[in-house]
Automatic annotation (TrEMBL):
Superkingdom of the organism of origin: Bacteria
Residue spans crossing the bilayer: none
Name of the molecule in the record: Pyridoxamine 5'-phosphate oxidase N-terminal domain-containing protein
Domain Pyridoxamine 5'-phosphate oxidase N-terminal per the UniProt entry, residue ranges: 10-93
Residue runs in coiled coils: none
Organism for this UniProt entry: Paenibacillus donghaensis
Upper taxonomic lineage: Bacteria, Bacillati, Bacillota, Bacilli, Bacillales
SUPFAM superfamilies in UniProt: FMN-binding split barrel
Length: 150
């Protein structure tokens, strides 16, 4: 592990300004234990702020409202990055999307290389959207546009 910095480097910033998936780690509001969920509605607003949106039916919304401490795990640049920060509601509900979502800003407190010593990722994980491709593109465009306006 390397020393933590308090903002995204240029390549992480560029990577998170495009569609990617990450793991969002929160503290469960009921059990107090850790949770981890893959999300793709996330982008970097600036080197010190990430913005993400979550469907209101998800437990993640309440988790972040009750305990704002989060870790976002990013796979890229040949490594695994752990981004620690605090979530704050940016817009609730998120405007101009077809269902109720909550938009959060994450104030970055630390960015660390979380891959074990001596290892390098051979490739970043990839995913496929297995439902209606046109519907997925339309929804993604609506959500990202609304997040950018929030």
């Amino acid at each position: 592990m390397t020393e933590a910095v308090a903002q995204l480097n240029e390549s992480l910033l560029a990577m998170l300004q495009q569609e990617t998936f990450v793991l969002l780690n929160t503290v469960d509001a009921e059990s107090g234990g850790p949770t981890s969920t893959a999300i793709s509605w996330i982008y970097a607003v600036s080197p010190s702020t990430l913005r993400l949106s979550v469907d209101h039916r998800s437990r993640l919304v309440n988790n972040m409202k009750v305990n704002p401490m989060v870790t976002i795990t990013v796979f890229g640049e040949g490594t695994v990055h752990a981004i620690n920060g605090r979530a704050a509601v940016k817009q609730d509900p998120l405007a101009d999307v077809p269902f109720k979502m909550c938009c959060f800003d994450i104030s970055i407190e630390a960015v660390r290389n979380a891959l074990f010593y001596g290892a390098q990722l051979d490739s970043a994980p990839r995913y496929l959207k297995v439902y209606d491709g046109r519907a997925a593109e339309k929804l993604d465009a609506q959500v990202f546009a609304a997040m950018q306006k929030a």
